[in-house]
Write a structure and sequence with these properties.
The complex is a heterodimer of chains A (408) and B (107).
Chain A (H helix, E strand, L loop, with lengths): L11 H5 L2 H10 L2 E4 L4 E4 L2 H8 L4 E2 L4 H6 L2 H14 L10 H14 L7 H18 L4 H6 L1 H11 L6 H15 L7 H28 L5 H7 L10 H14 L2 H16 L1 H9 L4 H12 L4 E6 L3 E3 L2 E3 L4 E5 H4 L35 H18 L4 E2 L19 E2 L3
Parallel strand pairs in A: 2-7
Antiparallel strand pairs in A: 1-2, 3-4, 4-7, 5-6, 8-9
Chain B lengths: L2 E5 L5 E5 L6 H7 L19 E4 L1 H4 L7 H7 L10 E3 L12 E4 L6
Parallel strand pairs in B: 1-5
Antiparallel strand pairs in B: 1-2, 3-4, 3-5
Chain lengths: 408, 107
């Protein structure tokens, strides 16, 4: 058996650049027990792709947590976990199938392909603000408000509530992505306050739509019924809306920031895109592959089984390391180079695959495809200022902040 | 087993035996047929299994549903009158021998 040094993925060194380590794992120990993360790392593309649809790997990672929590912590966390456990991202079939079908329907009806024009107007407006503010804060003046506004509009929320959406999304991220530097108790308390405020807000929106229906997602979800004629309960609807809000925001913010970072680090590629905006579809897929917003997806093991010669035990976690799969040299030629002309097949796994594949993948793509060419056209000299640092999160590839220069 | 023929943009042909009841998308993905992605696994959410169906087989397929119609607006290559999502084409006696062309890109 090959012995490989076990490293902590959340160490400063691997938070900055884990790729040499991933390469070693893919070659020598592709199913690796990571002591610090208390779980198995799957690092090869083929293994990650197979794992997405493997019924031995459950997406229910809240139920088991509720069972093992100490009673005093359970009391404190229960309200938050009760919301999160209804999220379809942490459910398996058949519960997942029902929620996902209804969500698919409501999302599809938003007709993402027709959104390009108004997303374009929004991008231009935010680029004006970015120039005007003079702070060069790409994260807060652009990458943050853009997807928040898009998702708020899809949910049928008034535009003036956008800032609230941003704050709640932040607070949910504290839990879902274990973000932020605060200690765990403070983090959970803040997230809990955010969630209950968000739930009240959504209840108000739902109430309004019940009285006066529109073409927004909440109206569609209120009227949608599954094959048995069942409607979503209010609790399910609130949880689904919270999830869509959260998932549609944070990840797209990170996609836009990561695009800015990798394009700045590869000025030749940035120049190529600026000169030929028709490359944008490929460029967006390459950003998703090279520096996608999600590093790792977690699955829970309910049944002992063998995987890559290792005994995987019930109660353990398996981490699908997308960040590594997307740099697998067996699949992508010269995987470590960023090349916006790269063919889009084989496709990266930035959005996952199968039943849990990202609901908003097409929306995220449209947002980035509209934003990047406009950004480069408006600010041909834009580039990241100073050193970029990344949040030490297990799940998300997120910058701690992003200053840009060249805004004139 | 029903057969399905996939013709890539550059003319390369692949003929597969697709189990009865299985979608052409699944058949292609399971056999690594280049030109079809199927990111969402057949939920009609990604439009990355777009194909152009050869005319003689078009009438043998069930009509395009509203959901498929919406997603066909999101294909990377232009939608044509013979555009379908291959996750919505099932291998069976009626579609045996079907010929589909895959677009230049799915993204």
């Amino acid at each position: 058996m090959t012995v490989i040094e076990d490293k902590d993925l959340l160490s400063p060194e691997l938070t900055e650049d884990p790729h040499a380590y991933y390469g070693e794992l893919r070659a020598k120990d592709p199913v690796h027990w990571a002591a610090a993360s208390k779980g198995w790392l799957l690092t090869r593309y083929e293994d990650v792709v197979a794992a997405y649809t493997d019924p031995l790997l459950s997406s229910d990672r809240v139920g088991p947590l509720l069972q093992v929590l100490a009673p005093e912590r359970r009391g404190q966390l229960a309200p938050m976990l009760e919301t999160i456990r209804r999220w379809m991202v942490v459910t398996d079939p058949p519960a997942h199938t029902r929620l996902r079908k209804l969500a698919n329907y409501a999302f599809r009806q938003q007709r993402v392909s027709a959104m390009g024009a108004w997303i374009g107007e929004l991008v231009d407006e935010l680029l004006d603000q970015l120039a005007r503010s003079g702070r060069g804060d790409f994260l807060h003046d652009f990458a943050y408000p853009m997807p928040a506004t898009v998702i708020a509009r899809m949910m049928g929320a008034p535009r003036e509530d956008r800032e609230k959406f941003q704050r709640w999304s932040d607070e949910l991220a504290l839990v879902a992505f274990s973000a932020g530097g605060e200690d765990r108790a403070a983090r959970h308390a803040r997230a809990l306050a955010g969630i209950s405020e968000l739930q009240q807000y959504l209840a108000g929106l739902i109430d309004r739509r019940r009285r006066q229906s529109g073409d927004d997602m909440i109206s569609l979800l209120l009227n949608a019924a599954d094959e048995d004629g069942d409607h979503l309960t209010d609790a399910e609807l609130t949880a689904l809306c919270a999830l869509i809000l959260f998932a549609g925001h944070e990840t797209t913010t990170n996609l836009l920031c990561n695009a800015m970072v990798v394009l700045s680090r590869h000025p030749d590629q940035m120049a190529l895109l600026a000169a030929d905006p028709s490359l944008v579809n490929r460029a967006v897929e390459e950003v998703l592959r090279f520096e996608g917003p999600i590093k790792v997806l977690t699955r829970w093991v309910f049944t002992d089984h063998e995987r890559g010669g290792k005994l995987i035990k019930a109660g353990q976690r398996v981490f699908l390391v997308q960040q590594s799969a997307n740099r697998d040299d067996e699949v992508f030629a010269d995987a470590g180079s960023f090349d916006i002309r790269r063919p889009t097949q084989p496709l990266h796994v930035a959005f996952g695959r199968g039943a849990h594949a990202c609901l908003g993948a097409q929306l995220a793509r449209i947002e980035a495809r509209v934003a990047l060419p406009r950004l480069l056209e408006r600010f041909p000299a834009i580039h990241v200022a100073g050193h970029v640092t990344w949040k030490p999160n297990m799940a998300s590839r997120a910058v701690t902040g992003l200053r840009v220069e060249g805004l004139r | 087993m029903p057969k399905a023929v996939y013709i890539r943009h550059d003319g390369q042909r692949t003929t597969l035996d697709v189990p009865e009841g299985t979608s052409l998308m699944r058949g292609a993905v399971n056999n690594d047929v280049d030109g079809i992605v199927g990111e969402c696994g057949g939920q009609m959410m990604c439009a990355t299994c777009h194909v152009y169906v050869e005319a003689e087989f078009l009438a043998r397929l069930p009509e395009v549903s509203e959901d498929e119609d919406i997603m066909l607006e999101e294909t990377a290559c232009p939608r044509q009158p013979n555009s379908r999502l291959s996750c919505q084409i099932t291998a069976n006696a009626a579609t045996d021998g079907i010929v589909v062309r895959t677009p230049e890109t799915q993204l």
